[in-house]
Amino acid sequence: MKILFKFQKTIVFLLKATMYISLTATFFLIFGTEYEWIVHLSRTTGVTFVTFCVVEAALVSVYGGYAIGRLKSKPIVTSLALATYVTDLVTHLQLCIMNVNENNNEHFVYESPHLLALVMLIQGLLIVFFTYFGNYVYFSINPPERCCVITSSEHSLNNIMPKIRRYKKQYNVTDMIHYSSDNVFDIINACDTVFLYDVPTKEKSLLNEYCYAKNKNIYFNFEMDNVVMLGAKTAILDDKPLVSAVVRDLTFEQRFIKRLMDIVISGVGLVVCGPLMLVCAAMIKAEDGGHVFFRQLRATKGGKLFNVYKFRTMSEQNSENRSVTDDDDRITKVGKILRKFRIDELPQLINIFKGEMSVVGPRPEMVENVDKYTQELPEFSYRLRVKGGLTGFAQIAGKYNTSPKDKLVLDLMYIEKYSLWLDFKLIMQTVTVLLRAGDSTKAFGKSENKYHFTEK
């Protein structure tokens, strides 16, 4: 086992290489039965192969790759399958286009969908096998890391522990202590990994330095100084090393392209989703005869107010402005379905087309929540530096009941790390939200103090 541990990176690399080669070979060998030229060396074969590899690499970058040891098997399978299936569709479309010539089709014909289905089936089985086998091998070599959780209160402890406990194969929590505990350094020495959560800045800095000196893995929650550092770079002024955090704003070219993307995506979205939206409207009207759309004042860039459009999912007799809770009796039967799959958000394509929102950006909040959250978290106003959006880090990584502070950090991460490539990635990753609809739309509920300090 010690020898395997020494060569674990090589083992993971070989598994990854074998999987990607198998996925590529599956596509070309099966389609080679229909397009004989694809399995012979030629310029056309080269173009097709490059297309497959480039698209696959780009989408793996978007959705995440063979992240064994870091993620559970199910999200890895989902990410790899999405990347591979979209690659199949793109490459298959290219094959159909290239097969229009004087020797074959005179016009474009979408050919061999049965082969595409067979390719996807086999690739799906390969992805499942390599993912579960890869995680089995990895965790056989690497037992869970011994961890300690250091926080400022048991309330904070119960915020972070459920998240850690979801990854039992990665982390074995042996101690949960208050940062002021007398033996905090002894406990750190006995661990491989340290989680610091809601620890005051001064003490967190001291514990971070100690962990760094002792070669301990460190996880700690974001504070505003950490957010500022996301967009920072190193700078050397004469012989003085400094950190440079320059105020960022979109250039004219970025604003133009972003607005163009908004118009195109929202326009196409309204056309494609039009039939679905008509069905939703009919279902809402049929249930209780009320209004189809729900309008609500939201705040966007610079504090500007606008009416956001959504499909109505609550009873009109009891629809006061307050956050949704578990088993909320205001939600209609149709509304439960629309909310589960985020279909109630589709009318916001109208807001995007009008220029009131963007496809990607911080979620525009209710005016009541803006005032409330800004009082609790003054940094909340920083979100208003950019136009509100339909999707973003907070919508993809977060859940409906993610805390306001964590949503704020996710939104500020987007602002600080903004790029057109990031927008593209977030748009593509939005598909994953639908695949975990029940989890991502979970409403606010009561938290329980299940975990307690092991050391007082």
Q: What's the short story on this structure?
A:
This protein is α/β, with parallel strands linked by helices and 456 residues long. The chain has 17 helices and 10 strands. The two termini are 38 Å apart.
General description of the model:
With 456 residues, the protein is α/β, with parallel strands linked by helices. It folds into three domains: 2-141, no CATH class; 145-221, Response regulator (Rossmann fold, 3-Layer(aba) Sandwich); 252-440, no CATH class. Helix content is 53%, strand content 12%. The chain has helices at 2-6, 8-31, 43-63, 73-98, 113-141, 154-165, 184-189, 201-213, 224-230, 252-288, 333-340, 348-354, 367-376, 393-397, 404-416, 420-435, 437-440, and strands at residues 145-151, 171-178, 193-197, 217-220, 233-237, 240-244, 293-299, 305-311, 358-360, 389-391. It has a four-stranded parallel sheet with strand order 2-1-3-4, with helices on both faces. Helix 3 packs antiparallel against helix 4, helix 4 (73-98) packs antiparallel against helix 5 (113-141) and helix 10 packs antiparallel against helix 12. It is globular.
Most strands sheet: 4 strands, parallel
Order of helix and strand elements from N to C terminus:
HHHHHEHEHEHEHEEHEEHHEHEHHHH
Name the helicity range.
40-55%
CA-atom Rg in angstroms: 26 Å
The total tally of domains equals 3
Total DSSP E strands: 10
The largest sheet has its strands arranged as 2-1-3-4
Output mean pLDDT: 87
Number of helices: 17
Estimate the global geometry from the Cα principal axes.
globular
Helix-strand category: alpha/beta
How much of the sequence lies in strands comes to 5-15%
Low-confidence parts lasting 5 or more residues at pLDDT below 50?
Answer: none
Distance between the termini: 38 Å
